[in-house]
Amino acid sequence: MADVSRRTVLTSALTAGAATALGSQAAQASPVAAQAAATPDLTGHDPVDVRWLEGTPAALAAGTTWGVPWPRGALGTNQRFALTATTGEDVPLQTWPTAWWPDGSVKWTAHAVSGDAPRAASYRLGPGRPARPEVAVVVSERHDRVVVDTGTIEVVFARHGQRVVRTITRDGEVIARHGRLVASRQDAADTDDPRSVRYEDFDGTVEDVTVEQAGPVRAVIKVEGKHRRGAREWLPFVLRFALFAGSDGIRLVHTFFYDGDEERDFVRSLGVRFTVPMRGELYDRHVRLAGTDGGVLAEAVRGITGLRRDPGEAVRAAQVDGRALPDPSTWDTRVTDRLHWIPAWGDYSLSQLTAHGFEIRKRTGNGHSWVRSDAGTRSAGLAYVGTPSGGLAFGMRNFWQLHPTELEISGAAGDEAEATVWMWSPRADAMDVRFYHDGMGQDTYEEQLDALNITYEDYEPGFGTPYGVARTTELMFWALPATPTPARFAELAEASATPPLLASSPQHNHSTGVFGSWTPVDRSNAAKAELEDRLDAIHRYHLEQVDQRSWYGFWDYGDVMHSYDGDRHQWRYDVGGYAWDNSELSTDMWLWYHYLRTGDAAAFRFAEAMTRHTGEVDVYHLGVWKGLGTRHNVQHWGDSAKQVRISNANYRRFYYYLTGDERCGDLLRELVDSDRTYLELNATRKIDGSTGEYDPDPRALPLGTTTDWGAIAGAWLTEWERRGDPEAKRRLLRSARSIAALPNGWVQAGTTYNLHDAVFSSGDEKAVAVGSLSSVFGLIEVMTELLDLVDEPEVEAKWVEFCRLYNASREEQAEVTGEHWGSLNLRQSYSRATAYAAVKLEDDALADRAWQELRTGHAGYPDDHDWGTRRIEPPAVLRPVDEADFSTNASAQYGLAAMQCLALVGDRL
């Protein structure tokens, strides 16, 4: 009999336990059914004001979806909601719950309105009977297709094959058809100047279609599949199409996963393409391309302006406006007799290959030269091709931020045009995701640890792979009844570039008790105003650095850098672990709390971009490391430290609840079983010097009680409150109780984790093992939320003990835990732990100590820190930039500490 490892045997035995309970959405009990039985007597709630994040928009991206929290015990599972504009009009509304309090009352709801909803500066949302849309979205499911009728357009989705969208029809006329995914690869990198390159084209193939919502205001169709050529399948994708009642817009959230061999699979192009029927004369076929700041290039396939002979003012004006031209019999015959000599420009390209420049070119057709039309800085990322009787507008959000991108129109002079959104433009160098160096001889753990001491990079051969990382992009399509005027096209481009979003106020959100310890901005006295100024200063600096340092690009946009090199006046983008931040020390969380407190639109968009990036690019979604994220590095996947502290559900929850975004919900769900990744990877291998085959015992895994457990606890907490999952609740509470039962709780040394029952254990003797990073990856925040939800006095007591002792004297530590905790770092960060203990113990002296710890600024920013910036001018730098004595880690932890101290012990300031 072949040898069977202990890991194999016990993993199989566990399949019927935790993995089965948490692994399948279909297996879960309905959260409504799970919670409803516990619903208490409800108090109700007054209507809440919701406002547009950036002010009243001219147009919506088909519609909009947003989230609102509610206090515990206020509203029940079956509560209906009404939305009323301040102008007095009732607004058709669709509502669904996204989280519940432990007592069964609704904690979060998501809401959707359509693009034709009455536009107002603000609205009132509250319990009531929702207005119905004049024409509701209707979804029809058939064996081979799903049909969505918004009342304005009808979209047919194929259940199988390479046509994701069969047709988009308006008023009985096909506006677009054969919506499909297109990609290509090459087997060598352009930058290596290969002598020969082999190219292959792939088409997306549909494997599964799910109706996730079916109206009456919003329908969501989820499509899953892979790109295929012959026998090869790769680049899995998940698409979500959102359609809204009465709207002619379609929002597409596109996610693809890289699962190739980075040494030979170089993605040359990646896009979404529709076929657009072209009707009528060439002079009645129009192209629109969005530029910068509302600019629009408006042209016709066959132009009749600027000719040697004038067809007439009315004719010229109609073509410029995009209207059908008058009967040719009314034109100057010197033009009509010679129309066939005017070139037909059937192909257009708007390529944004860098964040700082786009170029528009056109040509008469394949086999002929491209002619440069115009250029600019940053395109809004929308195009249109069609006629006065209808056409397709198509575009991409964050078009210039996620370069290299392109919008392409081809064949508009023929019977059918092809409209393509290139998320990776074929005009750019092929996507090169290989590791950036050859290892430099780091073949042993000793050599790798030695190198870590100079570049801060934790390298290991084979670990810098991108296999399993993902990228999500948002696209928009409008099936328009006519060629839009430049003004209308500019409105659609703005809606595509920055989809309007409704939001409730910081005051309401805080009043509901969500997200733990925070308060809205408070400048009621000079001391608080000074702190608020500092919080604004560090946030503004990092926000502005994104543009000053051009932190853009397909794989990079949304992240920020870790540390600064003052000698070069440059962030350390090329120095190992000092480069991309990858969520280190909870940068994501800091940005979200800043938004919660301020309600500022720029703060929301900053945090949103980071969530879209860090949740996808910095995390593995396929393969043996699925559920793990990668520590900070020159490349987002480059470091060998693969950890749940980076994939961290605590960082994603904000965006999910504030927007109802289904893709973010996927990210949260895939982390529920992330404790199982410790069967695949020994995270402590370089610390304990482990070599050889990793053969873990599932009943004694090396999973930590702090950074590891805090991240996994966030996933369980979210799964419990989102879906009422009893197994997630069981694992969350059982693991927390087991930690509290350890001799020294969260600082007990020598602990192991039993994957079967989610219990930590150790020896009976008190022993101390504590690090400064223990609680700066969301543990403090998730414990604050958890202890507010459940009555667990033993857990609370042990946690409060930890919070009190971290910054206590060595004598106090030793008195409780048997030995002192050593020379701990990041003491400013832990001032919020002291503040939490002060509240729980009702101890003013501890509250005062918390403020002293914040002011002293150990491993952070002391009171006398320079909070300003200085301008650095060329030739010292490439271009003028601002410089400050800030690092991302210190800013994130200072921000979190200051915000939570204000919330917890602000009265002692």
Automatic annotation (TrEMBL):
> Residue limits of the PcRGLX/YetA-like C-terminal alpha/alpha toroid domain?
499-908
InterPro entries linked = PcRGLX/YetA-like, PcRGLX/YetA_2nd, PcRGLX/YetA_3rd, PcRGLX_1st, TAT_signal
Task: Tell me the ranges covered by the PcRGLX/YetA-like central beta-sandwich domain, including all copies.
Answer: 137-493
PROSITE patterns from the entry?
A: TAT
Q: Which UniProt keywords apply?
A: Signal
Q: Which domain of life is it from?
A: Bacteria
Name-wise, this protein is Tat pathway signal sequence domain protein
Query: What lineage is on file?
Result: Bacteria, Bacillati, Actinomycetota, Actinomycetes, Micrococcales
